[in-house]
Amino acid sequence: MLTIKHVEPGGHESIQEARSVSVISIGTPEGQEYELTAFGCVPNGGAVDIHGVCRYGDGVVYVMNDHGSTVGHYRLG
Q1: Residue 54 · residue 63 · CB < 8 Å
Q2: For the whole model, what pTM was predicted?
Q3: Please, are residues 38 and 52 in contact by the beta-carbon 8 Å criterion?
Q4: H-helix or E-strand spanning residue 70
Q5: Total domain count for the chain?
Q6: Could you give the CA distance from residue 22 to residue 36 in angstroms, rounded to a whole number?
Q7: Which residues of 16-37 are buried (b: 16+ CB within 10 A; e: fewer)?
Q8: Taking a C-beta distance cutoff of 8 angstroms, is the pair 2, 17 a contact?
Q9: How far apart are CA 47 and CA 28, in angstroms?
Q10: Percentages of the chain per state (helix, strand, coil), in multiples of 5
Q11: Tens-place pLDDT, residues 7-17
């Protein structure tokens, strides 16, 4: 399992567990932006759809492995 820490632009933080993540680049008129999609999310009051998918499009996302080491750091939006 992976642990995802999302820090929103306003400073609110949330933690979510997931099985895997994917980051895609979105070309916009203003430049490149990124979106992170997490699969196998555990519904714990967060924004998880019925398939266990959660998406992040802004803020900063840290992805940690099951040993607590950061394996990904993404600035989104």
Answers
A1: no
A2: 0.86
A3: no
A4: strand 70-76
A5: 1
A6: 6
A7: bebeebeeeeeeeeeeeebbbb
A8: yes
A9: 25
A10: 0, 60, 40
A11: 999 999 999 99
Q: In what order do the strands lie in the sheet with 13-18?
A: 13-18, 2-7, 59-64, 70-76
Radius of gyration of the chain (CA): 12
Report residue 35 as tokens.
């979106």
Total residue length of the chain: 77
Q: Which two tokens stand for residue 75?
A: 């600035």
Residue ranges making up the domain that contains 70: 2-76
Question: For residues 16 and 52, is the Cβ–Cβ distance under 8 A?
Answer: no
Read off the pLDDT band of 60 (50, 70, 90).
very high
Q: Pairing mode, if any, of strands 20-28 and 13-18? A: unpaired
